[in-house]
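Table S2 (text version). Query chain:
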Amino acid sequence: METMSGNAGNPPESSAPYDKKKGGGMTMYALVAIMLVVGLVVGYFIGASLAQPAQTNDDLDDILDRGQLLVASDTTWAPFEIYNATSQQYEGVDIEIAQRIADELGVDLVIKPLGWDAVLAAAQTGQADISISSITITPERAESVDFSDPYYSANQAILVKADSGIHTLSDLDGKKIGCQLDTTGAIWVSEHLVQTGNVSENDFIQYSDIPSAVASLDVGTVDAVICDTPVAIAYAKDTHFDFRVAFTIYTYEDYGVMIAKGNTALKYEINRILAEMKDDGSLHAILVKWGCA
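Corresponding structure-token output:
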């Protein structure tokens, strides 16, 4: 009796631990549930961000804040980009296009003359904001950089001395051919003349720039130089030399402005400006001025 009255109104001893266990279990399950929900939400947003390409205005904002458009160009490639020693100015088709882009953005144009390989890497490595230098849009190049919409179409041409016996493709068999290194002209020679055995590897000479290749043609080190049509035509018209264009190889190449991969804001602006130049006739006028239309 006394034992019963002493425990009256109190839970049995065995029930106290039971209550604690029950309450603790509910808290643990709730915590796990919350963690699962949070994990799902965070995972969703992370997955969404990874699924979408980064689109940023940072590079364009940097240009506007700096007040300068830094442009990489191999300025040995007349009539598209060349340094005029008399005026001490860079000029040509690409230079005028770059100037229009800078003007539309409201910034100053700064030309950074670089070697060809450096030009191809400049936009992606941050040496320049863009590269514009008669750059052919190719799938291989587009793997590491972005391109604007095309603004010019070119082919390859065979530049020879005026008294050369080279007139057709078969006339190049066994001849010494000069090109600028890593250009689409050099790629064409490698694929269609060297790999086919029509020209030996020793007779295929690649130069760091087109003036060096042309100088070799002038002194007879090579029999022909293969380069983009507007460049070959410009040299054929140059009265300092006695050259002619033997024939054209139709490769149907498109030039584009090279931009760092993912720089969507700057690419959009450049495409907008190029479209305006096509619509208002200013691009055509530039091409006519430099003998490229």
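Notes on Table S2: Confidence is low (pLDDT under 50) at residues 1-26, 29-34, 36-56. The CA atoms of residues 145 and 261 lie 5 Å apart.
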